[in-house]
Fold these 4 entries.
Entry 1:
Amino acid sequence: MADKKRQLLSVWGDTVDFRQLLWGVTGGALLGHFSFAAGLRYLATYHAGLQKGLAQGYALLFGVGGCIVAGVIAAKLFPPKHVYREQERSIDRTAVLKDLKVNMQLEAEYLRQASPKIIREMQVLQLYDLFKGEGETATPVSAQPQKAGK
């Protein structure tokens, strides 16, 4: 079987497969319509005393519920298509921090008081070395020796 080329579109800032978008919209329209019709029939059968406009309003809620169910089904059937890639050379982090006027001494002080979990996470994201002060080490606060009086 020949490998089909996917047609990816950008819709409201998200990347979607055109065929899957059509399936999702069609499913939403059909399920919404049939939910509305079923709601009208249910209300006419079991709540015949309702005024026509009120029954149509309630049936509209059934239709909206059908559209929501169709959206959940489409979300489960069709996984996301976007892939984020960050290149280390794409951003000069030091220049960004200077532009934002970040107080690096204050940030280094905050890191000295940060929990080991935060330190590890920042090291994984390669942010720790950027924020630590000159000559600082990567030792978390809990691993540092404590004074006897504390």
Note: Residues 8-77 form one domain.
Entry 2:
Amino acid sequence: MTQRKRRLTVTVDPELVEAANRAVANGSADSLSAWVSAALTDRARRDQQLARLGDSIAEYEAEFGEITTEEIARQRRADREHAVVVRGTHKRAAKARTA
């Protein structure tokens, strides 16, 4: 049996109300309430994922030591070097072709 939904009153920026109304009008949401409920569900899921990520990082650092800014920068460089361009042109590849 599904839990009965609760009515609540909130104050929302007008742009968000307009976005929700557009979603209802174009059929991507059944109602304003459904759109808001989906947004809250997404936010709750994201917050849970971030909390788990924070816990994982804390466990890693407890075992191996703090992740340094140098390690993060090194990993970012490696990620960029090994990235696969899916759309458009990789900036370095485009520069190499024009040189």
Note: Helices lie at 14-25, 32-64, 69-81, 91-98.
Entry 3:
Amino acid sequence: MLKRSVFIIILFVAATLPALAQKSDDAAFRTIVKQMLDAQTAYDAAVLDKIYTADFIEISPLGEFDTRDKVLGFYKPELRPDPAKVNVAVDASEFSIRNYDKAAIVITKLTFQMTAQGQQIPPRNMRAMLVFRKENGTWKIASAQYTGIRPAAPKPQEK
């Protein structure tokens, strides 16, 4: 009877371990997305260098194919706009995470809040699709594609 109880407990633990690992990975993906957004808004290429794979590629919101070096060059600290003139905050929401053990796809909605010359600009929304891959046992971003979300059309005025 004791052997049977131990066997059942072992089976239960073995069955739940993948689900626990999946939740842990999901939290890691969300954390890495936040690190990426924070680094992009701060023009911190050093952080991006750590979280992008060696062969990272990006499809920009303009549809351009950007290599890792081009992306890192864009975020050099000396190229950061003057925060007194331009300020950007980004929020990630609506996550869809599909984990395939050695790779994962994360889709998220990005909402950009911006001010320019002290004036609030209407928020802009974008979808980001990020492909993650383990590199030396650590999740990193292998590619990113950004697609703009059209603002809602104004409601027609009633006559």
Note: DSSP finds three helices and six strands in the chain.
Entry 4:
Amino acid sequence: MALTQAKIDSNKEPSTITRDGLNYTLEIYGNREKGAISHIMANLEEQLAKIEINPQVEIEQIGEQKQFKASAERMIGAIIVAVFLILFTLIGMFHSVKISLMILFSIPLTIIGASWTMLAIGYHVSMPAMMGFMLLSGIIVNNAILLIHFALEQIKLGMNKRDAMLESIKIRTRPVLMTAFAVSVGMLPVAQGSAIGLERLAPLGAVAIGGLVVGTLMTLIFIPVGFVWLVDEKSVISED
């Protein structure tokens, strides 16, 4: 007479097994109500750093975060192309690489103010924020053009470069400040993100306000100093 012993045990198994490259995968989905995706993923990475994970387990971000990284790369490429187009346009307008680079130098000045504003408010880099940087590039370059173009015209009329720039500051400061503060006031509702669906564009408004205010004030300081230091009066008169 044969006796058979059996042990009955119960284990929980997934109802569906997914693989990627012959590796088992477990996908975790989540939705967000508001806030930048980069901000959310930064908080997630901070919490994951506190957890001990098996070395054989690999964590990869997909979905919206993966799309954001791909879009950010394309946006950075677009910004680089835009900067070069601005440079070539300025060279065609002023017939001077030195003056064109001086005007282009005003763009990094906006990044200082925009970065301070985002840090103060608590925003992270996102697609709306990068769009705000592109918006700032056009406005701040226009402010520098107003200052330098007027000073060049005064040099051609017989002024020295120092007096020409001082006269440009007296005449052009008001329209420059009016443009900066008008755009900043218009961006306040966007930066507050008070309306439904507008909170995702809040970084754009914050970048525009901080970058314009700080960048404009710094442009009124550094552009005149660079102009007096680098521009040659004889070459300006000879181009006339």
Note: The chain has a mean pLDDT of 80.
